[in-house]
Amino acid sequence: MAVTTCVHVWVLPDKIDEFIKASVENNKHSVQEPGNHRFDICQDASDPCKFLLYEAYIDEQSAAAHKETVHYKKWRDTVAPFMAQPRQGIKYNILAY
Q1: Are 30 and 66 in contact (CB under 8 A)?
Q2: How many CB atoms sit inside 10 A of residue 26's CB?
Q3: Which 3 state secondary structure label does DSSP give 64?
């Protein structure tokens, strides 16, 4: 079953540009993963410090494999100090798209 993770991220105001740069770099590699359906980076229209990463994969194994990639680990380590609070990932099963 196709799965998605919605990752809610709150970034420190002075780190927004750096967060976006690191996230776009991660996105460029993530969308090339064999099991990736979609990988969106969204910024809240009313609060520029709030982001949503929408990560859709063909199955749970592909989603798990993403977290083992070099580009994900680089992103995770790079953006950790940019967080205003810990990010929250919520998993969903995709029913239709």
Answers
A1: yes
A2: 23
A3: helix
From CA 39, how far away is CA 66, in angstroms rounded?
A: 11
In the chain, the number of structural domains is 1
Q: Assign residue 23 the CATH number of its domain.
A: 3.30.70.100
pLDDT tens sequence across 45-85: 999 999 999 999 999 999 999 999 999 999 999 999 999 99
pTM value?
A: 0.94
In whole angstroms, give the CA distance from residue 3 to residue 37: 9
